[in-house]
Amino acid sequence: MNIFNEKRLISNFLSLSGVQAAKYILPLVTVPYLIRVLGPEKFGLIAFSQAFIQYFVLITDYGFNLSATREISINRDNRTRISEIFSSIMLIKTGFMFLSLSILCLLVFSIDRFRAERLVYLFTFGIVLGNVLFPVWFFQGMERMKQIAMLNILSMAIFTFSIFIIIRSQGDYIYVPLINSIGSIIAGLISLWIAVRKFGVSIKFPVFTAVKYQLKEGLHIFISTIAISGYTNTRIFAVGLFTSNIITGYYAIAERLMGIIQTFPLASLLQTVYPGLSNLFSENKANAIIIMKRFQNLTTLTYLSGLPAVFIFAPYIVKIVSGFPYEEVILSFRLLLIAIFFINANAFRIQFLLVCGRDDLFAKIHIIMGITGALLSFLFTYSFSYIGTAAAIIIVEFAVLILTLRYYYNETKGFTCRLGI
Is residue 259 part of a domain? Predict the structure, then answer.
């Protein structure tokens, strides 16, 4: 059986690459405009609010983008089982969303720092609703990434065009998170309609045992994801707490650039390959490991050869994006390039722990380094401003690489030897 259908694999990769391209290229159009119209201070405020709200996105995701993707992929031919998985996860995510909204309201109406700009945070929370509505995990598990691509591009297009139409002066900053949220919610509603009408998913109230099972399946991934993702969100959050909105704006620009280099097109490849690897692993474990190694070696070589050029041309890249070669942005970006190499030299290897069913090792690595990274981010940012934040990222990502290599090779007899290798 050919688990990796080449035509479908290429189609999915191109679709997700289109999403990643739009996700990072369209902001390259809007970010310079927003910086010029709103100024670095208001841009920093918006970046800070997005980093803050991402904590609630993490709660509602609960690791389902990996655990549910795996479940859907394995049961893709069983419509009854798929409907049960779908209904259980949507119920859990909705419950977590209302819990998150309650926490947000408590914070924005009781703490002065948040109360002063409460509308920014409340409008930004719409991203959480859009994320709950959009079952990315379902489309990934079914390996139908074209739907993800079209809907994400629609959401980003709405945001991009609306920015140029509505945002005209610094006082319009309040509408930026609202526009972003509206685009996300529209895409989420359409995606639900597609899941029900095109894929025949039946949404019904699930039994308690089904909900409990999904919570258990996603727990290890949730803990590890919240640890490492919570740390990644902590970076801008820490800069916002210990510096000014202007410095936060500068650092946020560097992180946006880091996101482009780090994830495009790697994120598309990871998302495309993951369901197929999970499926292949259940049938031919040796081939799954061979394919993973090939992807990882190719990725490492690509970034090793390409990042030096990005480092050299960093001032020109920053000027194109922000309209001015801010020294703070250039320095931050160049430091972050070091972290990018460590991340991508490890991307397929660490994800393969999930393919192998070693969610515990995946969680252990991310919990240890997530907590360490969050503490380092606060400590280094407090001591050395935004430079300390970038230094903390380098240290943590290098440590994640070393830990992954250690577990991967030390556990070869434990989990890869079980594969017959």
Answer: yes
SS3 state at 293 = helix
Long-range contacts made by residues 334-337, C-beta under 8 angstroms, separation at least 24?
Answer: 335/387, 335/390, 335/391, 335/393, 335/394, 336/254, 336/255, 336/257, 336/258, 336/390, 336/393, 337/258, 337/261, 337/307, 337/310, 337/311
Domain assignment present for residue 402? The answer is yes
As for how many domains the chain has, the answer is 1
The tens digit of pLDDT for each residue in 153-178 reads: 777 888 888 999 999 999 999 999 99
Per-residue pLDDT at 108: 92
Kindly report the pTM of this predicted structure. Answer: 0.72
Higher-pLDDT residue of 182 and 363 is 182
Residue 1 lies in a domain: no
The Cα 262–Cα 340 span in angstroms is: 6
HSE (side-chain half, CA atoms, 13 Å) at 92? 29
Range of the domain at 147: 6-419
Is the pLDDT assigned to residue 92 strictly greater than 90?
A: yes
Backbone angles phi, psi at 302, to 5 degrees: -60, -45
